[in-house]
Predict the 3D structure of the following.
Amino acid sequence: MDNRPIGIFDSGLGGLTALKELRRLLPNESFVYFGDTGRVPYGARSPQTLRRFARENIRFLQHYDVKMIVAACGTISSILSEDPAWDPTFPFTGVLRPAAEAACRATRCGRIGVIGTSATIRSGSYERIIRQIMPNVQVFSRACPLFVPLVENGYLEEQNPVTELVARDYLSGLAAERPDTLILGCTHYPLIAPAIRRVMGDGVTLIDPGKETAAAVQAMLSARGICADGSQTSDTRYFASADTEDFGTIAARFLGEPLESAVELVEVDALSRE
Amino acid sequence: MDNRPIGIFDSGLGGLTALKELRRLLPNESFVYFGDTGRVPYGARSPQTLRRFARENIRFLQHYDVKMIVAACGTISSILSEDPAWDPTFPFTGVLRPAAEAACRATRCGRIGVIGTSATIRSGSYERIIRQIMPNVQVFSRACPLFVPLVENGYLEEQNPVTELVARDYLSGLAAERPDTLILGCTHYPLIAPAIRRVMGDGVTLIDPGKETAAAVQAMLSARGICADGSQTSDTRYFASADTEDFGTIAARFLGEPLESAVELVEVDALSRE
């Protein structure tokens, strides 16, 4: 039993799709969420920059005495999984393995599509981990670099013409490869799932990395005996490195309920200075 | 006469539109360009952090014995222009004043539009400086946060449907205010000027801050008698604080020709350590 909070971070708002699932699945747990909105997007950055951001964000969350850390960011998860020096001394998960495992369970025809940021797709991490789990699967990948800016700028409403157009541009070729399963390899993408589904077709199973990661967190807490026992009121604290007002408004929309506390501002500069 | 190079910096790639104009206008001059891609974006940072970044970037450029420094970045230009302690001891210009002065010269009806990133528009710096120059002008502002991601992701070809749609979305309301002059208040925007022009109409004069800044630099060099004399071959060195490979590719696209030398990597940590 361990009533300390779980720390979650993402480049911005996307990780809230994981937080939403975590709160639903683990109502006794408390959370500290950090959205690095001052440095979003992560998708075009170099591996060394991304490793530095991961270190800094983890160090920030550790100030809040978290019992576990979740990198709810496809890009960071991919980069860390390719880093031989990455060997955390604390309970940790990214979104990569839970999403890859779910896709391997879901596919019938052995054809899996993966979409993500440029850094994620360039790293080849999804392809590599899928092949570890299921060697004979065929993987079709496509970078969708504009999806994160679209989500972060609120191009979310049903049938938004810009989002529809960009989705068609990125995904028509991938749909032609006829995968039966598509990994939304970035936690922002579930927020525009309807536009993605319209290009891919209803027969394709979309894998939501936040949802799969929430299940993985639940399993890890149980296996280690560090679940919260419900004796304390659970809560969530929110931190962002820019635009805390906008963040609060959009976060409430993503979570489907108002935030229980104001979003607290973290100076980007303080992250690297500490 | 002074054959030393001119130093230019920006948070990333946008300042290359100024560099392109400078190279066209001043073919005898040599340049040192620094894109602070490891710390981009600047827009969300505090004024004291931005003042520190300006100091560090200037100090970096001064290692290359530059005769003049150009801040080809709207955010830095506004922060420095609002700082009473900012009093450079070397020839210096930002992009804000040259663009604002050009707009005041161009307008006939006294109605000026300004577009920029969210941070630039929120700061009100363009509006303030325009009013200093021409108190009775009316200024209409609009933030266009998706334009930078569109440019950075190459949505540049003539009549790209996504860029056209986003431009219409951002600018229709501004066009309805009937300005006769529009400041492209971000150095990325000249790259999608045709899409902007199609919404604003042919009668609106578009002010390119890079172009106006290049003219201001030419005037400053002449006034101080520190132009290069053409006796030495001019060249440009490129530095970036991350992602030097992508930087080289996109830089070539911005400049309309391949770079004459490889982009050199500057460690972000070294900037503040020096």
Chain B has two domains: 6-94+211-273, 97-209. Residues 6-94+211-273 of chain B form a domain with the Rossmann fold fold (CATH 3.40.50.1860). The radius of gyration of chain B is 18 Å.
